[in-house]
Amino acid sequence: MNLTLQVWRQENATKEGRFVTYKADDISPDMSFLEMLDLVNERLIKAGERPIEFESDCREGICGSCGCVINGQAHGPLRGVTTCQLHMRSFKDGDTIVIEPFRAKAFPIIKDLVVDRGSFDRIIQSGGYVTVKTGPQPDGNATPIGKDVADKAMDAAACIGCGACVAACPNASAALFTSAKVAHMSYLPQGQVEAHKRVVNMIARHDAEGFGNCTNIGECHAACPKEISIQHIAIMKKEYICAAANYEPEIQRSEGAI
Amino acid sequence: MLSRILCSSVFQKVIMAVTGLSLIIFVITHLSGNITLYFPDGTPFNKYADFLASLGWLLYAAEIGLVATFLLHIATAIQLKMSNSKARPVGYKVYQSKGGPSKANLSSRFMIVSGIALLGFLVLHIWQFKYGPGIEQGYVVDIDGKQVRDLHRLVIETFQNPLYVAIYVISMVLLGFHLRHGFWSAFQSLGMRNPALHSALYKLAFVLAVLISLGFLGIPVWIYLNSTGVAS
């Protein structure tokens, strides 16, 4: 396959970026999208140019490292896959592919297609944990949990934190990410102790990081490689409405990112 | 501090949802009264208008409540829109929906546009009818020995003008688009977590939007067609 790539190139966070066009010739349809970029980079290096920076780790769709916006869609045209699991057979010979980073104020660009998703880590730090006793491993059957409840919790816990929800959201909101992290613990007894504190502080942190507001469009659900439903956002909202009367957040929206 | 809760993204959407649903109740009430405009005889409509006017202070209280609800809905919407724009300072060169479970469509993507257009319509609508010519200007009719404002005549006369008919039809189509996303979205914002209700409400929103939109836009069209003799 012979393709034309329009790639966002940006030296660093402060410099202005621009689109650069590259030819990607002799691409096998069996290559993954990232392997195609690897090949293009190899040729760029041989030609003495700076290779295209992108992030990847496991390349099997479970780590959440990779991700870019391909022809206007986070992780490309397929649903339920990450960028590394997208293959070139999803494109046609002669196609022009526009490759952009995930764009959001809360995801500042580090270089080219690499963005800083530290804002997600700070949302987790603000409440995405449970308090457990240290010491010997607890008995596996000490807290029985029904299969239906465990399944629901697992649906939410499938989130790999890739950031595609933010990239796809017309408002650059991280409501789906935050709700997945709130919901998977809200289902389980271990999550009940800090339930109020958790949802209030995680949303306060979400807002302070500069993410947008959810307008219930559901583009995040369509872009999510783990196909996490926006019903988790409703769960988060209900949790918040119940908690807001009892608990006040530790930071406020205007306090901004750390 | 309460303001931390009030300013949060979740609470602001709760305000949008509560005010939005209140306004939908108002719109349905308004439409059920206006159904009388489909009758060829103007008396039922004039009686209904006179009944509202005779409520006195109760009507003022309702109007103040309505204006406050509108203002809160609009002010919060503008605030949310501004913070959403700030959340993505550099936009995409190409952006397209991934389809599937996504509810991205003209209705959900352009709520602010349909909302602003409806605000403009509202100003025109209130200026034309509420503050339009009344008893002093000769729009008067005798109902059961009582002199009341002939609002029916004003409505009929207004919709002889095809320009007004077009403005009203377009505005009511936009109202339909606004409600198609707005009605369902309100329940989502209020934390409605039952998955079965979730899809049922999404379908109900479509039916509700079509019914309300057609119910309203039919009035000027019906009056115009009647006057030009097409329908009679």
Question: If you had to describe this structure to a student in words, what would you say it looks like?
Answer:
The complex is a heterodimer of chains A (258) and B (232). Chain A has 258 residues and is an alpha+beta fold. Chain A has two domains: 3-109, Ubiquitin-like (UB roll) (Roll); 118-255, Alpha-helical ferredoxin (Fumarate Reductase Iron-sulfur Protein, Chain B, domain 2), CATH 1.10.1060.10. Helices cover 32% and strands 11% of the residues of chain A. Chain A contains eight helices and seven strands, in the order ββαβββββααααααα. Chain A has a five-stranded mixed β-sheet with strand order 2-1-5-3-4. A two-stranded antiparallel sheet of chain A has the order 6-7. In chain A, a hairpin with a 2-residue loop joins strand 6 (109-111) and strand 7 (114-115). The longest helix of chain A has 14 residues, at 33-46. In chain A, 46% of the residues are buried. The mean pLDDT of chain A is 93. Chain B is mainly α and 232 residues long. In chain B, 72% of the residues lie in helices and 3% in strands. Chain B is built from nine helices and two strands; from the N terminus they run H-H-H-H-H-H-E-E-H-H-H. In chain B, strands 1-2 form a two-stranded antiparallel ribbon. In chain B, strand 1 and strand 2 form a beta hairpin. The N and C termini of chain B lie far apart (64 Å). At the A-B interface, strand 4, helix 6, helix 7 and helix 8 of A face helix 1, helix 2, helix 4 and helix 8 of B.
In the predicted model, the low-confidence regions of chain A spanning at least 5 consecutive residues are: none
Compute the number of helices of chain A. Answer: 8
* C-alpha termini separation of chain B: 64 Å
- Please state the average pLDDT score of chain A: 93
